[in-house]
């Protein structure tokens, strides 16, 4: 419990070095080492163990432990804050525009958006997550409003009025974050909505403390980002912040930013 409390941000394990290089494993004496990059690791994780874990966390009735319940609550608050923005803007602005949800997971945001009348094009690097989102949307009769596919967000193309990317940046090392924001900015006509685990002295201290207690299982590496760096990346992509929110429970920390094209 202490380990989880100390080293989990959004429920994922934080890296031991702030700029962790790809993990390289000695294949054999003769062969060169095999290096696993973050994206392959994330894809593999969310198609297997991560799918089982996060599908439960992102379900109202999935069986979860106390920490996972706290993360479910925190994540639900982030989604609710976005929906509150959407509702306060009025339903017309939603039904008139197109919405791309990149790294959609099991559809926690895409589905309520479709229920509110949005046309949502959602995707995830992990086919297991995207398929579960598609199944959930179909069960609710939303297949016409929301489509789901498997894609790395940096391979997405087209143009959408709004592009959202919620709790995905945690999988991006700081040196790759601006490229990711730049790509999403390139497909967003008007608005970007992003969230990330903030790199503050408090969460850093929490992370260092957690490193004293080696955990039994490592999940994927997870990265914090400074708000300053994210705002700079948004500005370079041509976007300025318009609304922000912070959600912090015991085990879930997420800064939410809405930015509009300048
Ligand atoms: C913590 S979950 C958040 C899911 C969803 N955005 C939500 O808030 O419910 C992170 C998701 O990001 C996806 N992901 C990570 N890197 C990605 C990438 N490069 N392209 C697309 N999806 C990615 C993972 O597969 C996973 O489903």
From TrEMBL:
Transmembrane segments: none annotated. GO terms for biological process: chlorophyll biosynthetic process. InterPro entries: Mg_prot_MeTrfase, Mg_prot_MeTrfase_C, SAM-dependent_MTases_sf. GO terms for molecular function: magnesium protoporphyrin IX methyltransferase activity. Residues 165-261 form the Magnesium-protoporphyrin IX methyltransferase C-terminal domain. This is Magnesium-protoporphyrin IX methyltransferase C-terminal domain-containing protein. It comes from Emiliania huxleyi (strain CCMP1516).
């Amino acid at each position: 419990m202490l380990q989880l409390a100390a080293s989990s941000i959004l429920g994922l394990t934080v890296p031991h070095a702030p700029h962790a290089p790809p993990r390289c494993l000695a294949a054999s004496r003769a062969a060169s080492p095999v290096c696993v990059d973050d994206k392959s690791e994330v894809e593999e994780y969310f198609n297997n163990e991560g799918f089982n874990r996060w599908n439960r966390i992102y379900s109202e009735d999935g069986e979860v432990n106390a920490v996972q319940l706290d993360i479910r609550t925190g994540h639900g608050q982030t989604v609710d804050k976005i929906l509150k923005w959407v509702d306060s803007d009025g339903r017309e602005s939603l039904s008139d525009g197109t919405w791309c949800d990149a790294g959609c997971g099991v559809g926690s945001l895409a589905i309520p958006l479709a229920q509110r009348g949005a046309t949502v094009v959602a995707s995830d690097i992990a086919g297991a997550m995207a398929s579960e989102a598609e199944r959930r949307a179909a069960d609710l009769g939303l297949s016409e409003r929301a489509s789901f596919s498997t894609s790395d967000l940096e391979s997405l193309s087209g143009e959408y009025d709004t592009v959202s990317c919620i709790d995905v940046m945690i999988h991006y090392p700081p040196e790759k974050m601006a490229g990711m924001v730049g790509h999403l900015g390139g497909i967003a006509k008007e608005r970007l909505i992003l969230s990330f685990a903030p790199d503050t002295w408090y969460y850093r201290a929490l992370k260092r403390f957690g490193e004293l207690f080696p955990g039994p299982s490592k999940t994927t590496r997870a990265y914090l980002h400074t708000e300053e760096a994210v705002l700079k990346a948004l500005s370079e992509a041509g976007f300025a912040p318009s609304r922000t929110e912070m959600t912090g429970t015991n085990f879930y920390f997420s800064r939410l930013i809405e930015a509009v094209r300048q």
